[in-house]
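Message: Just now I want nothing more than another pair of eyes on a protein record. I am handing you a single protein, as its sequence and its fold in token form. As I understand it, each token names a local backbone shape. Take your time, and here it is.
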Amino acid sequence: MGAHPKRKISKMRRDSRRGHHALEFPQFITCPSCRQLTLPHQACHRCGVYRGRQVVEMNNERAAQ
């Protein structure tokens, strides 16, 4: 036999616990060097710039444009 609850969990307590389960849509920022949408606090995946510095070497033609 499995465990059984000793008391009923009220709807308010149940729903309050589940209030943190919602998914959030990721927030995007615009890269100042290439105007591409990117995630905050991360290097741009198109040009490799983070906080005004080139941190990732990009050797494709799209980064030079």
